[in-house]
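User: I need a structural model of Nitronate monooxygenase domain-containing protein from Penicillium daleae for a docking pre-check later this week. Nothing fancy, just the predicted structure tokens so I can convert them on my end. Input:
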Amino acid sequence: MHFVDALQNKIRANYPWAASPLIVSAPMAKVAMPKLAVAVSRAGGLGFIAAGYHSDHLEDLLEEAEDLFQEGLPDTPVESEKGVPKFLRIGVGFITWSASLEKALPSFSRYCPAAVWLFAPPKGFQDLIPWATKIREATALRTKIWVQVGSVSDAVEVVNAIDPDVIVVQGLDAGGHSLARGASIVSLVPEINDKLRELRPYPQKRADVLAAGAISDSRGVAGAMALGAQGCVLGTRFLASPESMIAYGYQKAILDASDGGITTVRTKIYDKVRDIHGWPEGYDGRGLINKTFLDHLGGLSEIKNRELYREELNRGDEGYGPNGRLTTYAGTGVGLIKEVISAGDIVKSLREGARNILFGQHQPKL
Ligand SMILES: Cc1cc2nc3c(=O)[nH]c(=O)nc-3n(C[C@H](O)[C@H](O)[C@H](O)COP(=O)(O)O)c2cc1C
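Assistant: Understood. Predicted structure tokens for Nitronate monooxygenase domain-containing protein:
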């Protein structure tokens, strides 16, 4: 058995519909809604819905996902026996410094999503203890606990705090929010894997490690697997899929961009102009460079920049791109994205392409 398949037995046990290597769509706030998540899971990946900054409409989102699964049988969600919750083959992601566990819990009891994704606790990973404990209780351990981290020390802390099922290792080149200081997955994934092996006595189980950040094609997936990841999380690549909830202008800016290391930047200004406050110390966001950032760099006041941002909203799709002002979060892998492809085809083509690179002619059975 090839190392990739051997590594993935546990993943397969927890997400039995998923094929190897596991391709995951990230819970992108306001963008990753049921259509995207269901399309990804249906293609043998795992799709996450973003509950994002709050959990107000979670019940509706999960109901919508359930309906989508039921359209075009045969892959309906597993209806449970009496008293045991259903099981929904998607995950739900929370930005934990702002989301409400109490609001979310009833939906977990009712729908039992396959995974919950926790990101950016307000003070430290101890803050995630109630999330992990209560969700495990509500779903009788069926919902797996995923946590996204951006450093080796955070990975150790989260293991000690809640013993998660999955650690998503987020490289500095990821689109959207991450730690402002960090490294790419090239060093983070192996160093975190080494560190987890060293932890003695290791908590009950060893978390699976997935890689996120700038992975846009099958070469990135194969590379991450070679680094020791057990699957890959992609955000920016899925922005160029019809199932993403983004403006046409945003999607066009993604397709037009190249050379992401130069044309994107990590900054806090894209939150400030949108009046998003409260990200914990040490976080910022990566997006395409546009006039908001350049004017900020040139010394324009935050107040004036926000005013211009608000005016720009009236321009709709025209407000995106290097000459626009509207926030366009994207990772450094943006230059590899040349066309809009259905989310299901993204999952299948990346998975098959990665398997060709990793196995060549000697393909084990999927
Ligand atoms: C538009 C956008 C929105 C995002 N929103 C979230 C979010 O709400 N919660 C979260 O945990 N991560 C979020 N992320 C980060 C992703 O979890 C992931 O780390 C990132 O997309 C991986 O890098 P890539 O975009 O280069 O593939 C977002 C990323 C993007 C591009």
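Before docking, keep this in mind: The pocket of flavin mononucleotide is lined by residues 26-29, 31, 50, 52, 93, 95, 119, 148, 170, 174-177, 212-215, 233-237, 329-331, 333 (CB under 6 Å).
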